[in-house]
Structure formats: C-alpha cells, structure tokens
Specification:
Order of helices and strands: EHEHEEHEEE
Keywords: ATP-binding, Cytoplasm, Magnesium, Metal-binding, Nucleotide-binding, tRNA processing
Protein name: tRNA threonylcarbamoyladenosine biosynthesis protein TsaE
Number of strands: 7
Largest sheet: 7 strands, mixed
CATH topology: Rossmann fold
Distance between the termini: 13 Å
Pfam family, one: TsaE
Strand order of the largest sheet: 1-7-6-2-5-4-3
InterPro entries: P-loop_NTPase, T6A_TsaE
Structural class: alpha/beta
Number of domains: 1
Family: Belongs to the TsaE family.
Length: 147
C-alpha cells in the first residue's frame, strides 16, 4: 500500500513502474472517476520516454505509442465507454500485447476476460490524495512494488 498525496506523486509512481515494464505486460488501473488512473498512466508513458503530454484515451479508447517515441510499444486503453466485454474483441488488444505493453483504465469492463497475469493497481481517494494498493501476479513478483 502507498499513500500518494497528490497528482505529482501518482505520476511519480508511474515513472517508477516504467523501467519494470516489458513486452507482453498488462497493467490494469482500477478506480473511480478522478482516482488518478490517467495520471499514473501518464507517469508510465513519461518514464518510457514520451515528451509532452499524453492525451486521455477516453474518446479514442486506444491510444498507441511506439518507438522511437517510447522505448517500448504501449497502448493506453480506456474502456469506460465499453458496455459489453464482447466489444473489446474489436480493439485487438492481444495484438498490441504481442510486442508491447497495455495500460488499461476501467479493466473491470473486461469481466472474466481480464488477463490473469495483469498487474492490478487500485487507486482510491484519500483526503486530497489517493491510496494505491495492488494485486501482484507471479510474473510481477520480482518487479512490483518498487524496492
């Protein structure tokens, strides 16, 4: 568990996660509206080399990034507008995962289709900041949390 006092601390956690990310990884970002999911994802993208601001993928649903913009291909995904897990098939997320990583906001929209090896990060309001908790599957045990 980590207490994050503000958006800058949330982005810093994302930056700490970035060097641990590798092809095939999925990071599932859980939390209500305004919980800090996008701030954490922006920190990861900045830590992977993105210069400038990353737009929220709320409208596009999938916002892909690739080298040389980042050191690793990443798809930043926002499933908020997805109503049926079957709709996700059309997004071809497995293709992004084949040679890159996925940052998935609103992963609960995947239902039982959420990958079992995904790092699950949960953000919840805590005063003016937020609390970060996680579920660490076997592929992440040596990589998360940062030591």
């Amino acid at each position: 568990m980590m207490d994050l006092p503000d958006a800058a601390a949330t982005e810093a956690v994302g930056r700490a996660l970035a060097p641990r990310l590798r092809a095939g990884d999925v990071v599932a970002l859980f939390g209500d509206l305004g919980a800090g999911k996008t701030a954490l994802a922006r920190g990861v993208l900045a830590g992977l080399g993105l210069l400038g601001e990353a737009p929220s993928p709320s409208f596009a649903i999938v916002q892909p990034y690739a080298p040389p913009e980042l050191r690793l291909p990443v798809a930043h995904v926002d499933l908020y507008r997805i109503e049926d897990p079957a709709e996700v098939e059309a997004l071809a997320l497995a293709e992004y995962r084949a040679d890159g990583a996925l940052l998935v906001e609103w992963p609960e929209r995947l239902g039982a289709s959420l990958w079992s090896d995904a790092l699950r990060l949960h953000l919840a309001p805590l005063g003016a900041g937020r609390r970060l908790t996680w579920e660490t599957p076997a592929p992440w045990e040596a990589r998360w949390p940062p030591r």
